[in-house]
Amino acid sequence: MGFWNSVSLLNLQDFRPGIRSVAECGDNLVMACMEIVQGREDTGHQHPFEQCGIVVTGKIEMFIGDEHRVLEEMETYFIPAGTVHGWKTSDMPVRLLDVSAKVGIQTGQS
Amino acid sequence: MGFWNSVSLLNLQDFRPGIRSVAECGDNLVMACMEIVQGREDTGHQHPFEQCGIVVTGKIEMFIGDEHRVLEEMETYFIPAGTVHGWKTSDMPVRLLDVSAKVGIQTGQS
User: Fold this and answer.
1) Per residue in A25-82, pLDDT tens?
2) Nearest alpha-carbon partner for B72 in A9, A11, A5, A33
3) Is A28 in Cβ contact with B64 (below 8 Å)?
4) Distance from CA of A17 to the nearest CA of B (A)
5) Which of B80, B71, B72, B73 is nearest to B101 (CA)?
6) Residue ranges of domains in chain B, CATH in brackets
7) What is the value of pTM for the model shown?
């Protein structure tokens, strides 16, 4: 907890293929800096917790339900719980600062 | 919900004296872009929900419990629930993207 240096420069760890990240996990929130390499796509998924974030460097194509957008630096997203969303990177990596509510907050389940 | 244009350019509304903001309020998360004018200070407060965010433009002096830092652009903070924290702006306005868990999530209170 506490402070991070510039998210543009943070050292990240392998998280999933093509995605490196570092995260701060609290009781209610997870704040993550993540970088996704170029040419990757998530065609859509959903989860029971809200998620939001901001593009730090690069750009990313994203959809949230029926809304579709190419997000550039300093542009944000807010994904309601249960809404299908996905993304596609361009020809360059994208770095995001992402914040999620932890699973089960909405329903009270652990 | 959905997308915001660059948080550097978002139009903000008066929120409190010296603070302008715009917010996206979900069921679990509140994402706010806020700008605080120069020369303001919050000497310390606490709340039962977690809060985190990133400096978009400018800089801000901040403390979280015993940790103290001058945060510059692209640097982040993560405030645990119940931890006393405060801030002080410099000789220029600061703009933040801030995300809070909603009040009562941790305790189940509304």
Assistant:
1) 999 999 999 999 999 999 999 999 999 999 999 999 999 999 999 999 999 999 999 9
2) A5
3) no
4) 26
5) B80
6) 13-101 (2.60.120.10)
7) 0.93
